[in-house]
Amino acid sequence: MPKKPEAGAEGRKELVEKARAARANAYVPYSRYRVGAALRSTEGLIYTGANVENASYPVGLCAERVALFSAVAAGERKFLSIAVVTADGAAPCGACRQALAEFGLGLEVILADEKGSIGRVITLDKLLPMAFGEK
Ligand code: ZN
């Protein structure tokens, strides 16, 4: 069976680069903390997101959910992996973990820093143990 192009190190690197590019568009006048995300669907398409802040703080949205909701709005429901790029390779917040969990706890989460260096690859079920869901 031929190796899928999205699998392995090359696929991860591609996803991280898309997340880095999206991160450049983050709108963060308040925190100055840029986040970029790139989510790959099982259809092989990549949806990106950047965090968008607002003067009314709670109105803003994380990069991961921008990418996820964009993908869902396009009709996607199944995902393989998400790359998240921050200055320091931080993991998604709890709200984003919950939002992603809705579509499968087996999602691969790739955490990278602003240089694109991958610090960790972990599945969502490890990031969100005892997840609340329809089951
Ligand atoms: Zn978040």
Element-by-element helix/strand order: HEEHEHEEH
Average predicted confidence as pLDDT: 95
Instruction: Supply the number of structural domains.
Output: 1
Secondary-structure-based class equals: alpha+beta
Instruction: Please give the CATH class.
Output: Alpha Beta
The coarse silhouette is globular
* Rg, Cα atoms, Å: 14 Å
The count of helical stretches stands at: 4
Let me know the number of strands. 5
CATH homologous superfamily annotation: Cytidine Deaminase, domain 2
Strand order of the largest sheet: 2-1-3-4-5
Low-confidence segments: none
CATH topology name: Cytidine Deaminase, domain 2
Helix content: 25-40%
Provide the β-strand percentage band. 15-25%
What do you see in this structure?
The protein is an alpha+beta fold and 135 residues long. The chain has a single domain, classed as Cytidine Deaminase, domain 2 (3-Layer(aba) Sandwich), CATH 3.40.140.10. Helices cover 29% and strands 21% of the residues. It contains 4 helices and 5 strands; from the N terminus they run αββαβαββα. It has helices at residues 8-23, 63-73, 94-101, 124-127; strands spanning 36-41, 46-50, 79-85, 108-112, 118-123. A 5-stranded mixed beta sheet has the order 2-1-3-4-5. α3 links the parallel β3 (79-85) and β4 (108-112). The radius of gyration is 14 Å and the shape is globular. Bound molecules: zinc ion. The site of zinc ion has 6 residues, from α3.
